[in-house]
Amino acid sequence: MEIKILGPGSLNDQKMEEMVKVAVKELGVEATLVKISDIGEIVRYGIVATPGLIVNGKVKHSGKTVPDMDRIKDLIKSEL
Predict the structure, then answer these.
(1) Are 23 and 72 in contact, with CB atoms under 8 Å apart?
(2) Structural domain count of the chain
(3) Is residue 18 classed as helix, strand or coil in its secondary structure?
(4) Is the CA virtual torsion 39, 29, 15, 47 positive or negative?
(5) Three-class SS of residue 2?
(6) Neighbours of 26 (CB within 10 A)
(7) Strand pairing report for 58-62 and 52-55
(8) Residue 40 and residue 36: Cα distance in Å, rounded?
(9) Domain with 12 in it: what CATH number?
(10) pLDDT value at position 64?
(11) What is the pLDDT along the chain (80 residues), one digit of tens a residue?
């Protein structure tokens, strides 16, 4: 599984990254985590508000808020 966290590095972006790491560990999922901070690349995914979450090439979240842990886990599990 490949998980990408998109964002230029705001506090919400950092929080999303940390929460995704915890969620992956708690779910026992093997995943490659990639942090994308290049605005051009973020826009190519159609993300206009960060943080963004891409799981296996599919946009699962974009917006100014960080989903709660249960929602992050659900987004990851939807690609298992």
Answers:
(1) yes
(2) 1
(3) helix
(4) positive
(5) strand
(6) 12
(7) antiparallel
(8) 10
(9) 3.40.30.10
(10) 87
(11) 999 999 999 999 999 999 999 999 999 999 999 999 999 999 999 999 999 999 999 999 999 899 999 999 999 999 99
Residue 34 belongs to what domain range? 2-77
Q: How many CB atoms lie within 10 A of CB 41?
A: 12
Give bridge partners of residue 62 from the DSSP assignment. Answer: 52
Rounded to 5°, the CA angle 68-45-60 comes to: 25
Q: 78: which 2 tokens?
A: 């939807």
Query: Which amino acid, 20?
Result: V
CB 2 within 8 A of CB 31: yes
Secondary structure, 3-state, 42-78: HHHCCCCCCCEEEECCEEEEECCCCCCHHHHHHHHHC
